[in-house]
Amino acid sequence: MVVDGKRVFVVRKGGQVFGYVNSCPHVGAPLNLEDDRFLDLFQTSILCANHFALFEIEDGRCVRGPCLGRSLEPFPVEIRDGLVVPKA
Ligand code: FES
After folding, report:
1. Do 19 and 74 touch, CB atoms closer than 8 A?
2. Any residues with CB less than 8 A from the CB of 75 and at least 6 apart, and which?
3. Domain-wise residue ranges, the chain
4. Digit-coded pLDDT (tens) for 9-20
5. DSSP E strands, the chain
6. CATH code for the part of the protein at 2-86
7. CB–CB of 78/17 below 8 Å?
8. pTM of the model
9. Which of 3, 46, 63, 83 is the most exposed place for a label (fewest CB within 10 A)?
């Protein structure tokens, strides 16, 4: 989805939600090649489908791949009245 001109996505893990700008720190490309597919096979990490970098869901830090140690840009979100919305 696009919010304020930025491509963003949200991942739910348990009762928490984490939002990020959909831009890989490797070359700035969108992470996903298919709509709404942002996780690896095991659903435990965020995957960049371009060169297979893996990112922690909780903080966006790259733990494997060509941008190791760099991080996704956060897009802070919260659950308000049962909806995921940008953090106020
Ligand atoms: S563009 Fe994401 S790992 Fe290369």
Report:
1. yes
2. 3, 6, 8, 10, 19, 20, 21, 86
3. 2-86
4. 999 999 999 999
5. 2-3, 6-13, 16-21, 46-47, 54-55, 62-64, 77-80, 83-86
6. 2.102.10.10
7. yes
8. 0.95
9. 83
Ligand 1 site, residue 33, Cβ cutoff 6 A:
no
pLDDT tops 90 at residue 54:
yes
Do the Cβ atoms of 50 and 24 come closer than 8 Å?
A: yes
Atom of ligand 1 nearest to the CA of 65: 3
Ligand 1 near 25 CB (within 6 A): no
CA dihedral for 87, 33, 60, 7, sign (positive or negative): negative
Inform me whether the pLDDT recorded for 48 exceeds 90.
yes
Query: Is residue 48 lining ligand 1, measured as CB closer than 6 Å?
Result: yes
Distance from the CA of 7 to the center of ligand 1, in angstroms?
16
DSSP-derived 3-state class of residue 2: strand
Q: Give the nearest ligand 1 atom to 27 CA.
A: 1
